[in-house]
Structures are given as C-alpha cells and as structure tokens.
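Hey, resending since the last one bounced:
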Amino acid sequence: MLKRENFPIDKIYVPTERRKTRDQTRVDAIAESMLKDGQQTPIKVRADGERFVLIEGLHRLEAAKALGEQTIAGYRVDARKH
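The structure tokens again:
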C-alpha cells in the first residue's frame, strides 16, 4: 500500500516530454480548486538519487508552484525508467 508523503517541490524533476503537455487553463483551474478545497489527489513520483521524478500529476504540481507552495502531497512509487 502506498504511503502519502510531502515532497519538496524544488526537488521534483519534470521530464522534458511531460513538460510539453502543460495546459495553463488546467493549472489555473486546479490552483483555484486547491485554494478552496486543498489538494485532493496526491501526485506520484519516483526517487532518483537526491531528487524525485514526476510520474503523474503535472498540473497539480504546477498549480502548487503557482500558489507558492513549498511542498506537495504525493506517493513514492517504484517505477521503471522510460
């Protein structure tokens, strides 16, 4: 079972291909929701040395950044490198 953790946003790396899928409209909508209701769905990351690599949750991560958050809730998963 996955354990929910808080991850430092500045330690999360977003792969280049994943960054290309960023949609500012979605980021804005999620940021608004996070202000109202908090973060409802954790992101998923995998450990990569001293940093974490984003597996799922680009728009949630970007919304948290836009709100000035220092950490974000997520799950650490054992994922294979692509």
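The CA atoms of residues 13 and 53 lie 5 Å apart.

Sorry for the duplicate.
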